[in-house]
Amino acid sequence: MKVLVRNLDRATTEKELSELFQTFGSVQSCDLIIDKVSGESKGFGFIEMPKVGEAKSAMKALNNSTLGSNKIRVKKAEGKVD
């Protein structure tokens, strides 16, 4: 299951984000979205967890929790609309 994490502190690293979600189960991938011009985080990213149950418990526990100096928002990632 792919999970969207929004309102990330710009200093948050992929390693920190991945480790946070690993407390709930295995993480298949972790991708922060980086601004091409500045090279800085855009403040959101995606986590992919192979087990739906683990992803759901991570979403429930981490939504509105604090990471760094920001309160993050966590929800199921929706597919792109063309």
TrEMBL record:
CDD domains: RRM_SF (cd00590)
TM ranges: none
RRM domain ranges (all copies): 1-79
The organism of origin for this protein: Candidatus Litorirhabdus singularis
Protein name, UniProt field: RNA-binding protein
